[in-house]
Amino acid sequence: MPHPRMVINRAVLAVVGLVFLAGGVWLAVTHASWAPRLPGWWPTTGPHTALIDAKELAAVRTQGWWTPTITAGSIAATVLLALWCARQLRSGFRPLMALPTPGTALRTRALEDAMTRQAVAIDGVARCRTRVLTRPGHLRVRLHVWLQPTVAPADVLPAVTALTDHTETALAPSDVRTLVRFSTRSHPRPHLR
Q: Using one digit for the tens of pLDDT, what is the confidence trace for 172-186?
């Protein structure tokens, strides 16, 4: 099952690519000038001139707000894009866990998917999100379980405990710590029209 972030990223890239492709095809095929379709406040330029000429650019640069604004905007854009790229790279790498049998390993994403499927199969659980964090010899499992509106955590706790115990025994040589967080799914509110 693909990760939701990967699906969203690919969908956004596909939409942006299709918009640019449609705009390029439209400009190439129509051979029509797009300048008459610009808003009235847009400055008109000649066929071989820049949008902002050297005089206007020099006048803007003499303003006191120009340099700090451009610098702050550039730094903010660079930091945001760097954080986004780092998050994309970090989320794509999933380490392998060594299993007790020599030469065998398990991907943490496979363990997350298996635990999520087993948790959702428990009566009273609406949905679940599992995150596995690994360090050499240690394993931390975080389960976020959303319950149905009429179910109390005590009703599903024995089944969730059995699931975590089964996971800990399956990964016996590793030190496994499990953190379970319960949330209640709210009642759907009727909409009046």
A: 777 888 899 998 866
Q: What angle do CA 120, 121, 127 make, to 5 degrees?
A: 15
The architecture that CATH gives domain 96-184 is: 2-Layer Sandwich (3.30)
Q: What are 139's strand-pairing partners?
A: 134, 176
pTM here is 0.51
User: Is 145 exposed, middle or buried, given 0-12, 13-18 or 19+ CB atoms closer than 10 A?
Assistant: buried
Q: Where are the domains of the chain?
A: 96-184
SS3 content of the chain, % helix, strand, coil (to 5): 50, 20, 30
E strand or H helix at 158: helix 153-170
Measured distance between the N- and C-terminal CA atoms of the chain, rounded to whole angstroms: 38
* Joined tokens for residue 110: 């496979």
Residue with tokens 């760097």: 82
pLDDT higher than 70, residue 43: no
CA–CA dist 147, 124 (Å, integer) = 6
What is the average pLDDT across 38-48? 67
Q: Looking at residues 108-117, what average pLDDT do you find?
A: 89
